[in-house]
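User: I've been trying to design a sequence by hand for this structure and keep getting stuck. Would you show me what you'd pick, starting by listing the structure so we're on the same page?

Assistant: Good idea, let's start from the same input. This is the structure you sent:
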């Protein structure tokens, strides 16, 4: 991408700078195959500030006598700035720009994670009740109020909102995965050296670590959304009532994350480091020296899935299909998703995801539809290495 120099950009009026940045964003999205969505005023303000930030200013290039060295350093500075600016631009692009895609491209400078990404594990009240059978988050793109109720064969699960925040969404849930992964990794280390201490019940990540783990950019918008996501996760509660012969046997309610605290902020007032209390039900499910933690491994490309419904389907496939196949009637799938869409529109959304998956496949699993006795059925099949090639 060819950019104006800092001097050329500085000479533009405010209107011209904004127009230029919108054009750069349009060009960037068109080259990536995404639909252009105009940048808002906050994103433009952050990009303007970043654009005029001097690179290698401490070298005082204007005072250098060696013209050849000065030109070389100026070119290097420009190249660094272009790469950094593209990264910042990517982080400011609204999520709606990629909403028509199944999978978004990984961030610039993204390093593929080589460690496991465990997902939510068996609910503590009954070993065969697993929250991967349902969506423990809202699939709605807007604020979801009220509660989501799942009536399954042997239990009732409800997802309850926070009064001010609404229910946590599918992308908020990434932070929960980050917390569980941290705890599982600490427990793995403990098992190697059992003379040490069990993992602490408090997790203190930096915002940059969370964003990197979730394979997101690290621009201003992501930091602002991070604090809102923590609010929703802390306020969202999961309630499970186990049933035995249709008689209520046990009920437990727990939050997705416990208390959180912003420990430090940057000079730009962005979150720098946070402290999360790990809920007892999470801690006790993973930190069990005598038993193996009941967690499942997710493909790191899970974080690149853009559609909340597609994320739900992948989690369900990972739990139910495993290394083989799983079949779900679309009516049952609609119930397990908690989707606010009416059944007809939900089935059309599944049809669209299955069709789109032919060109943009979900990680690890192939999707197809077939006719069943009582309606259409979604088939989720583990992709073989031969088929994947």
């Amino acid at each position: 991408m060819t950019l104006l120099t800092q001097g050329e950009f500085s000479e533009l009026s405010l209107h011209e700078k904004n127009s230029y940045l919108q054009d750069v964003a349009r060009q960037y999205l068109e080259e990536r195959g995404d639909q252009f969505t105009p940048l808002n005023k906050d994103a433009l303000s952050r990009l303007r500030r970043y654009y005029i930030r001097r690179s290698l200013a401490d070298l005082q290039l204007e005072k250098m006598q060696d013209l050849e060295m000065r030109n070389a350093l100026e070119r290097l500075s420009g190249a660094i700035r272009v790469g950094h600016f593209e990264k910042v631009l990517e982080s400011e692009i609204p999520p709606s720009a990629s909403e028509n895609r199944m999978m978004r491209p990984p961030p610039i400078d993204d390093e593929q994670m080589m460690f496991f990404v465990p997902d939510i594990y068996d609910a503590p009240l009954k070993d065969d009740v697993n929250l991967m059978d349902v969506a423990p988050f809202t699939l709605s793109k807007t604020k979801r109020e009220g509660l989501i109720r799942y009536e399954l064969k042997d239990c009732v699960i409800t997802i309850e909102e926070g009064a001010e925040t609404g229910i946590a969404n599918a992308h908020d849930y990434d932070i929960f995965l980050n917390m569980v992964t941290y705890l599982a990794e600490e427990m793995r280390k403990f098992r190697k050296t059992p003379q040490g201490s069990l993992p602490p019940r408090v997790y203190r990540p930096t915002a940059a670590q969370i964003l990197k783990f979730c394979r997101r950019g690290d621009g201003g918008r992501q930091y602002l959304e991070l604090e809102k996501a923590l609010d929703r996760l802390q306020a969202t509660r999961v309630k499970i009532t186990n049933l035995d012969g249709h008689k209520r046997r046990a009920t437990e309610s727990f939050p997705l994350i416990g208390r959180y605290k912003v420990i430090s902020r940057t000079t730009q007032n962005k979150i720098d480091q946070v402290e999360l209390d790990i809920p007892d039900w999470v801690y006790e499910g993973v930190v069990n020296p005598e038993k193996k933690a009941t967690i499942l491994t997710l493909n790191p490309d899970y974080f690149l899935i853009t559609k909340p419904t597609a994320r739900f389907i992948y989690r369900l496939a990972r739990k139910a299909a495993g290394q083989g196949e799983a079949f779900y009637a679309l009516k049952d799938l609609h119930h397990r998703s908690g989707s606010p869409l009416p059944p007809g529109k939900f089935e059309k959304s599944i049809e669209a995801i299955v069709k789109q998956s032919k060109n943009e496949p979900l990680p690890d699993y192939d999707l197809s539809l077939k006719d069943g006795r009582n309606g259409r059925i979604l088939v989720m099949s583990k992709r073989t290495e031969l088929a994947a090639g």
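That's my pick for every position. To get oriented when you compare it with your attempt: The CA atoms of residues 87 and 108 lie 6 Å apart. The longest helix spans residues 67-92.
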